[in-house]
């Protein structure tokens, strides 16, 4: 696995990303990495890709600040953390988000392909005469991250309210997401949010938690 | 640096629109209607089941399924709000006996920035979900019955069909694999030829799985653009996903709850069976 050390700020005509060694830059890269862009598998619409980014941010925020009664943070996030970057990276042994981790010196790192894809998306975003969907989506992710760092989370949590999934009582809110390949399940007390409750979004499947942990 | 202000100054009012309302997220609004005829053709549904048989179903599900007289499909069109100018058609195929929902898409839109037309000739699988089956078909569904014996015989007869990629696609895959392997540092590993195994392709799934022997990597190439379209390979960076089998495999997700990093040994076994046993061995000669 190759780690990226390219922490220079990425500037361009229509898109500007914060450096990867800032909280807002690292978080934005995670949000962008997890969702499909036009032409990629599972792309449905700009609104859906944006919605997925916001829900992923809600998951991270929930793991950091909204631990439901009966749970400890490490049950949900795999780590005890008071920082969103630690929530993203998890522990050395059990990373939480593929491609994002701390190196042995404690630096926040990404797999090379994360930065490579981002640079490619930026290149496409800048290849028209005016900002299009790619620019809007990239800017959305960066703005979302920047606003989160500055002001905390805003925006509607579409999974905030459900108290039941089928016959299972749940906590509400999503606490995990996975690429929607059907066979994936994150284990533990996570409960699959079905399509009828909008559980599939932007190429990802979201999971809430059992109300009463096993 | 107050980026929004700088950006507004630089980009003008048009760009202002990009910044507004960026944190709202309306619920996904989907309406439904009767399915397009292609989706209820028996041959198409056979291919969907063949794909599930190869990539999803296990022994107990097949055992359960074949006890029925007919195989049932509930099929409808999905109409989510798409981007302006996007003429893609989406559909949903529910297999109530298996508790599975297959979402499919026939893409038809343009990526303006690239001038690329994304247009599929057929409906391709967008996602597969397992869910508790309702007792009745949802609204707007067309119900299709297929004789179970015919289906069972078809699955048995075609279980080892190869459906290999054509030579031009293999050439493109070779080139893409070299790039991907270089990223992973694999090509600097043992000198000499590299061996990869390509899983059979499905006409209803726009993806290709490849096992790279030397690197112990599994690559998945998938796109909204048909893999047979040469254009897609010009954007190879957006196509490939790799799994490091030495690091990313667990027996159960219970070992690392909540992480999206791992695949189970069962999932990997199935992919390796498709790549190695049913797939095509391709040699990449040393450069």
Q: How are the secondary structure elements laid out?
A:
The complex is a heterodimer of chains A (214) and B (287).
Chain A: E1 10-11, E2 16-17, H1 23-33, H2 46-65, H3 73-77, H4 84-89, E3 100-102, E4 108-110, H5 112-125, H6 133-151, E5 164-165, E6 168-169, E7 176-179, E8 190-192, E9 200-201, E10 204-209
Antiparallel strand pairs in A: 1-2, 3-4, 5-6, 7-10, 8-10, 9-10
Helix pairs in contact in A: 1-5, 1-6, 2-6, 5-6
Chain B: H1 3-11, H2 13-19, E1 30-33, H3 42-55, H4 59-65, E2 70-80, E3 89-95, E4 100-106, E5 108-111, E6 116-119, E7 124-130, E8 142-147, H5 148-157, H6 167-183, E9 194-198, E10 207-212, E11 217-222, E12 240-244, E13 249-250, E14 263-264, H7 265-277, E15 280-284
Parallel strand pairs in B: 13-14
Antiparallel strand pairs in B: 1-2, 2-3, 2-8, 3-4, 4-7, 5-6, 9-10, 9-15, 10-11, 11-12
Helix pairs in contact in B: 1-2
TL;DR of this structure?
Chain A is of the alpha+beta class. In chain A, 35% of the residues lie in helices and 14% in strands. Chain A has helices spanning 23-33, 46-65, 73-77, 84-89, 112-125, 133-151; strands at residues 10-11, 16-17, 100-102, 108-110, 164-165, 168-169, 176-179, 190-192, 200-201, 204-209.
Key terms for this structure?
heterodimer, A: 214 residues, alpha+beta, four-stranded antiparallel sheet, two-stranded antiparallel ribbon, 10 strands, B: 287 residues, five-stranded antiparallel sheet, 7 helices, 15 strands, 28% strand, globular
Instruction: Indicate the low-confidence ranges of chain B by residue numbers.
Output: 1-27
Number of strands of chain A: 10
Largest β sheet strand count, sense and barrel closure of chain A: 4 strands, antiparallel
Strand content of chain A: 5-15%
Chain-averaged pLDDT of chain B: 83
Shape of chain B: globular
Indicate the percent of residues in helices of chain B. Answer: 25-40%
H and E string of chain A: EEHHHHEEHHEEEEEE
| Computed structural class of chain A | alpha+beta
Q: List how many beta strands of chain B DSSP finds.
A: 15
Q: Which outline of chain A best applies? A: globular
Structural class of chain B: alpha+beta
């Amino acid at each position: 696995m190759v780690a990226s050390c390219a922490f220079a700020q990425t500037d361009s005509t229509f898109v500007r990303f914060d450096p990867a060694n800032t909280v807002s830059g690292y978080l934005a890269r995670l949000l962008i990495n997890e969702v499909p862009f036009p032409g990629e598998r599972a792309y449905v619409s700009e609104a859906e890709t944006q919605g997925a980014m916001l829900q992923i941010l809600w998951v991270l925020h929930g793991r950091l600040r909204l631990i439901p009664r009966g749970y400890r943070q490490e049950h949900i996030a795999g780590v005890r953390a008071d920082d969103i970057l630690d929530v993203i990276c998890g522990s050395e042994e059990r990373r939480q988000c593929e491609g994002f981790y701390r190196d042995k010196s404690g630096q926040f790192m990404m797999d090379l392909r994360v930065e490579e894809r981002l640079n490619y998306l930026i290149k496409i975003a800048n290849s028209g005469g005016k900002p299009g969907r790619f620019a809007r989506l990239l800017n959305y992710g960066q703005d979302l991250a920047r606003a989160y760092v500055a002001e905390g989370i805003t925006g509607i949590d579409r999974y905030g309210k459900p108290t039941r999934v089928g016959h299972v009582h749940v906590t509400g809110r999503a606490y995990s997401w996975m690429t929607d390949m059907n066979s994936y399940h994150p284990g533990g007390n996570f409960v699959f949010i079905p399509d009828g409750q909008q559980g599939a979004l932007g190429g990802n499947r979201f999971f809430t938690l059992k109300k009463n942990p096993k | 640096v107050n980026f929004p202000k700088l950006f507004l100054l630089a980009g003008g009012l048009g760009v202002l629109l990009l910044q507004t309302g960026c944190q709202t997220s309306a619920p996904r609004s989907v309406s439904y209607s009767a399915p397009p005829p292609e989706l209820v053709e028996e041959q198409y549904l056979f291919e969907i089941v063949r794909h599930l048989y190869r990539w999803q179903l296990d022994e107990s599900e097949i055992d359960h399924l074949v006890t029925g007289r007919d195989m049932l499909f509930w099929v409808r069109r999905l109409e989510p709000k798409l981007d302006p100018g996007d003429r893609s058609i989406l559909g949903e195929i529910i297999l109530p006996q298996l508790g599975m929902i297959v979402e499919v898409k026939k893409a038809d839109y343009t990526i303006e920035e690239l001038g690329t037309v994304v247009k599929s000739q057929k409906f391709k699988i967008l996602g597969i979900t397992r869910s508790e089956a309702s007792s009745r078909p949802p609204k707007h569904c067309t119900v299709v019955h297929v004789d179970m014996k015919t289906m069972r015989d078809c699955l048995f007869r075609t279980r080892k069909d190869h459906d290999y990629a054509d030579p031009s696609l293999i050439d493109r895959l070779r080139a893409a694999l070299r790039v991907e392997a270089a990223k992973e540092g694999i090509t600097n590993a043992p000198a000499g030829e590299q061996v990869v195994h390509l899983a059979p392709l499905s006409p209803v799934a726009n993806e290709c799985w490849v096992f790279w022997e030397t690197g112990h990597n599994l690559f998945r190439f998938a796109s909204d653009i048909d893999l047979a379209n040469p254009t897609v390979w010009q954007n190879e960076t957006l196509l490939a996903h790799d799994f490091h089998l030495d690091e990313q495999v667990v027996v159960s997700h219970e070992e690392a709850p909540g992480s999206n990093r791992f695949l189970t040994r069962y999932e990997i076994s199935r992919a390796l069976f498709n790549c190695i046993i049913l797939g095509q061995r391709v040699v990449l000669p040393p450069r």
